[in-house]
Amino acid sequence: MQRRHLVALAGLAIAGASALTAPAWAQSNEIKIAHIYSKTGPLEAYGKQTQTGFMMGLDYATGGTMTVNGKKIVVIEKDDQGKPDLGKSLLAAAYADDKAALAVGPTSSGVALAMLPVAEEYKKILLVEPAVADSITGDKWNKYIFRTGRNSSQDAISNAVAVDKPGVTVATLAQDNAFGRDGVKAFKDALKKAKLAHEEYLPPATTDFTAGAQRLIDKLKDQPGRKIIWIVWAGAGNPFKIVDLDLKRYNIEIATGGNILPAMAAYKALPGMEGAAYYYFGIPKNPVNEAMVSMHYKEFKTPPDFFTAGGFSAAMAVVTALKKTGGDTNTNKLISAMEGMSFDTPKGKMTFRKEDHQAMQSMYHFKIKVDPAFAWGVPELVHEIKPEEMDIPIRNKR
Fold first, then answer.
1. Cα 67 to Cα 52: distance, rounded to the nearest angstrom
2. For 344-381, how does the pLDDT look when each residue is reduced to its tens digit (9 = 90+)?
3. Residue 388 CB burial class (10 angstroms; 0-12, 13-18, ≥19)
4. At a CB cut-off of 8 Å and minimum separation 6, what does 12 contact?
5. Taking the CA atoms of the chain, what radius of gyration do you get in angstroms?
6. DSSP for residue 57
7. Beta bridge partners of 369
8. Which 3 state secondary structure label does DSSP give 383?
C-alpha cells in the first residue's frame, strides 16, 4: 500500500515537473520585445507612427515570418502617456514580469531619461526610438542604451550646415524641456560662422507665441545682414504662426528641421525655407525605403511619415542583432553584436557607434517647394549630409 502511494506521489511529481517545464520551454522559443511609447498624451501622433513603422519593419526584416532562428518575436505594447514615472514603472514591469529580452521606445526624451537607470538595473537593452535629447547617449547614458533615433546634435549640426554662413544672425525658439534645451545647445555648439543673438524658451504646451515672437523680433530687427529664427519644436502648438507677425517687414526668415507631414502643412507658407530633415519619404533612394513606402501606401493609402521611418529602423536593428546572435537574447551577446554594427534602414545604412551606441546616419539639407498636389510644403533635397560630414560629439563618460 505504502509503495503504491509512493509511486503515485512520484507520478504526481513527474507530472508537476513537466507542467512546470512546458511553459519554460515555450518561453524560450519566443523573443519578447517590449515597445513602450506614447499611445496617448501630447506626442501620441509620433508614438503611433513609431508603432506602425516598428511592426512593418519586423515583418520586412523577418521576410513576413516574425521569427528569427525559429524563435517567434512577440511584441508587448505599453502606453507611457508621455509621463516619466509611468514609463519607468512600465519598463521595470516589462523586464521583470513580462520577461522582455529587450525594450524599444519611448517617444518623449523626459520619459527616456527616467527609463535609462531601469535598463541598467535589470541589465537589459533599451533601444531608444525616437526620443532625441543628447543626454540619453550623453551624460545619462549607460552601456545598455542604444539609439536608432537621431540625437539633438545630429538634428542641430545638420541644421547648422544649412544656415551657418558668415553675416547671418540667428535667434532660437524652443520648448523649455530636455528636447528643446539639448537641441539649442547642440545647435549653438555647431554654429561656427553665424552669430547667435538670443535663445527663447517657451512652455511645451504653448499655443500663443506672440510674446515670445516679440522678444525674438526685438533682438533681431536691428541686426545687419541675414536674420533667421531657428525653431525646434515637437508636439502640439504651431510656432510657425509667428510668420503672421509680419517678420518680412524686418527681413527675418524662419528655419527649422523636418517634421511630421501634418505639421509641415505650415511650411506651405514658407517657400524657399531651408533646413535639415531626419526623413522625408520622397528623399532616400534605397530598397528598404521603397519597400516601406509601398507597404504603407498599401495599408493606409498614405505615405509613411517621419517617425514611421524611425520605428522601421529600430526593427531592422533588432532583427539584424538577433540574426547575428542566432536568436540568442543574452544581453552581453546582444551588446557585442550591436556595438559597431551596421544595418539597413529606410534612410540607408546606419551604424551604432561603439563609444555611445548612437546610430550614425545621414540627414537631409532641404529647401521647401510648394506643390499643389501636396497638403504640406515639400522638402526638396539640396544635399544628403552623410555621417562623416557631421562631427557628432561623444558626450558620455565611457
1. 18
2. 999 999 999 999 999 999 999 999 999 999 999 999 99
3. exposed
4. none
5. 24
6. H
7. 378
8. strand
Instruction: Give the helix ranges, DSSP H, for the chain.
Output: 2-28, 44-61, 84-96, 109-122, 152-163, 178-190, 210-220, 287-300, 306-324, 331-338
Residue 200: exposure state from Cβ atoms within 10 A (0-12, 13-18, ≥19): buried
Residues 6+ apart with CB under 8 A from 30: 71, 72, 73, 74
The single-letter DSSP state of residue 358 is B
- Strands 348-352 and 226-232 turn out to be unpaired
Peptide bond into 106 cis (omega under 30): yes
Angstrom distance (rounded) from CA 141 to CA 129: 14
C-alpha cell at 371: 506643390
Listed in sequence order, the residues at least 6 apart from 9 whose beta carbon sits closer than 8 Å to its beta carbon are none
pLDDT tens sequence across 281-314: 999 999 999 999 999 999 999 999 999 999 999 9
Which residues pair with residue 33 across a beta bridge? 75, 102
User: Does residue 394 carry a pLDDT above 80?
Assistant: yes
Q: Label residue 18 by pLDDT band (50, 70, 90).
A: very low
Q: What residues form DSSP beta bridges with 169?
A: 195, 227
Short-list 277, 296, 267, 360, CA closest to 49: 296
Q: How far is CA 243 from CA 38, 240, 248, 364, in A?
A: 30, 6, 8, 24
Distance CA 115, CA 146 (A): 13
**DSSP 8-class letter at 71:** E
DSSP SS3 for 366: strand
